[in-house]
Amino acid sequence: MPKKVLLAEPRGFCAGVEMAIKALTWMVRVFEPPVYCYHQIVHNQWVVKAFEQVGVVFVENIDEVPEGAPVMLSAHGSSPEVVQGAGERAGVVIDAVCPLVTKVHHEVKRMAAQDFDIIYVGHEGHDEATGTVAVAPGAISLVQPEIGLAGFDPADSTKVALLAQTTLGLHEWQAVLEQAGQQYPDLWTARKSDLCYATTNRQEAVQQLADRADLILVVGSENSSNTQALVRVAEETGTAAYRIDAAGDIHPEWLTGARIVGLTAGASAPDHLVQEVIDRINPSDGFELFRVTDEEEYFPLPRQLRGFLTALQAAVEGGFTARKPGQPGLLENDRDWTATEALQLVWP
Least crowded by CB within 10 Å, which of 49, 52, 238, 305? Predict the structure, then answer.
């Protein structure tokens, strides 16, 4: 039986996920169901199921959205064609793309306009990678980190740019960065790393956690790139590591001989699932927070949603969006309202 659980801090929801979940919660509170969402709002099966139960329909093709229906675009970012198609057929379109992904999209546009050949390091088939490549398909080459630059042949070796999927593992990005830097001395990279601060922080926590733990458990869904990266980071230290969706996925034999269990969660995993894992393990000495850094990032609700709700708030005298005269409403208090609290409103 494990003696203690070391609980990584930070873990779980990042600022982009917080924003996206709260935004979709506003949608299902304001509009009659169904509300449509292009792709999973975030890559977590529990979150997706919670929204499905209150009338959200997740679609893989924007043409599946009925004419005039409200639609939200996922946090992973969408191609220009999807954004245009949503605007042409949906009644209300809210783009919940993470600002960090938007930054990469802007970089792709800028470098493509300057005739750079762009190396984009990412995982083929991932929603974020698909949307980013579609921003400038004629200028960008998707390079998978485990393969490297094999096959990449720029028209001008002095005009090569290197960008990344925000949820990559730091080691994955650095390996391609080193290879590209050696091959292309004039390589352009962003002044501020494309890698998500939350992804990097969680990976750093796992690296340090692995030095003290006999076993690492990572809560998160299989299609979550940053969750899978956490498992790989732990395994590279030589510590046994497993991804689980929930407490019920734990195999009893994993815990055999593990006195200290390290526990963390991917950036789209709800914290109540983490608490259920602690309860399932039931360590004799309880759990201890293992803090590496503090995160205070906050991303406001999407501009389109804030504009829509502000107009609705001003027009309606009662109901969910109205505020008391002279007092701040929910929009003004968005920074203090968490995605966990938002999910509690929609989960039956």
Answer: 238
Is residue 73 within 8 Å of residue 51, measured between CB atoms? no
**Band (317; pLDDT cuts 50, 70, 90):** very low
Length of the chain in terms of residues written: 348
At residue 120, what are phi and psi to the nearest 5 degrees?
Answer: -115, 115
Residues 87-137 pLDDT 10s: 999 999 999 999 999 999 999 999 999 999 999 999 999 999 999 999 999
The pTM of this model reads: 0.88
Which is nearest to 321 in space by CA: 91, 37, 27? 27
Q: Which domains does the chain carry?
A: 4-13+197-291 (3.40.1010.20), 15-97+298-346 (3.40.50.11270), 100-189 (3.40.1010.20)
Asked if residue 33 has pLDDT above 70, the reply is yes
CA–CA separation, 249 and 107 (whole Å): 40
Full 3-state SS string of 29-79: HHCCCCEEEECCCCCCHHHHHHHHCCCEEEECCHHHCCCCCEEEECCCCCC
Residue (of 183, 182, 171, 230) closest to 202 by Cα position: 230
128 is annotated as an active-site residue: yes
Q: Is the CB of residue 44 less than 8 Å from the CB of residue 270? A: yes
Helix 15-30 to helix 45-52 angle, to the nearest 10 degrees? 10
